[in-house]
Each structure stands twice: as C-alpha cells, then as structure tokens.
Task: structure prediction
Amino acid sequence: MRWRMLAAVALSLAPLPAAADVTARYQLDRDALTIEVDDNGDYRAEIAGKFMLMRRSGAEYVVIFQGATPHVVERKAFFDLVETKLRGELAKSTEARRDLVLTKGSEEEIAGRRGTLWTVALDKPGGNRIEAVIAPDADLAPVSAVFAGLLDGGLQVFGGLIPESNLPELLRQVFAKGAPLRLAMMVDLRLNSVSKAPIDSARFALPGPVVDAAAFERALSGPNAKTGVAVPPPSPQP
Result:
C-alpha cells in the first residue's frame, strides 16, 4: 500500500523549456503544492514535509521525507522501483476496452488567468469524469512541462494496470494544450497564484545525499517507516 500511495503523488518530470523564473502555487486537496522553475530549466515541486521532485543540472530526483529526514533517489530508479512494487501488489486489468470522449467546454477564470474546460468521459450520461481547465499561458509554459511529465510518470507506473482504452492518448492531448488551472482527476487541484519573481538558486540544492534504489527501498519499507503521504490509489476510469 505504501508504494501505491507514493506512486500516486510522484511527479516524473521532463526537461523544461527555458523561460523566466516562475513559481506556481496550487491547492492539492488539503495540501499546498508549490512548483518553482528557474530560467535554466531546474525545478522544485514540493508538498512541504512530504515530498519534493527536483531537477538540478539536468539530473532528476525524487525526495521522500520521513519526519525531518529526506531520502533522495534518482527519478528513473524511483519509478522503476515503484512500477515493480505495484505489479506485485495489483493485478493487471482484464476489463474490456472502453474508449472515452474528449469534450471542449466553456472558459473559466482562475487566479486571474483564463483557461478552457476539457472533459474526458464515456460517451453516455453519468459515470466518472475527468475535468481539466487548461491555459495556453506563456508565463506557465515551464509549469505545463512539469505536468506533462507528471502524466508520463503516472502512465509508466499505472499504464499496465488500468483497463485498456484511449485514456492515455486523450490525457496527453489535454496536457499538451497548456498548464492546468483546475484539475479534477485522482485529486482536486486548483491554482492559487503565479509569481515571476527571481528564485534563489539555493532552492534547487538537494536536501540530502543521493542513495541507490536498494537503500531507498530499505529506508521506506522498514517496520517503522512513515512517509506522511496519504493519497489514495487511482480512481476508476470514467
């Protein structure tokens, strides 16, 4: 269960386009999610005291906290490890293929920025749905790349476990349109503010030594291991 929860919040981040420094602050259910990207493409995506995802000098890392202790591992090693763990915990879906429909909705204004509502759902009334208000905002282009990477990370981990459908393709289409201002999917996400103030380069320093996957697993799998992350597994498809 711990690995499932970690996978649900981890961000697999792609290289980012060069731009001015930008900080986007979101509400993620009860937590505050802060994404900072500098003009070199380094980033720091953080829920304080729980996890950080970082890119520094071209290398990407995942940081999970146990109390005040950070555990740092390379991104690829983390996702390979979590994917292996989940395939041992969860059975591959045997449901019949179900394709979904992407629908364009109205415009919304959130935190002073305008975006378009996109909905992914089955082509029938009722049922679950994914909603995303997306803004093709130049200020948020680096943040958009962060979320596109998040999607790719989630699909790497969960792609073989969810029912077969066109959902991955539709989600990639949505996230290619810009940065989310509001998102209702596994969790509820809403933009609170955007700042273009310069970011101190010290913000992108790793908080601890990098360990290999085996040491990382031991640290988080011991009998007294607590990460503080409490995010549910993915909800059923729409």
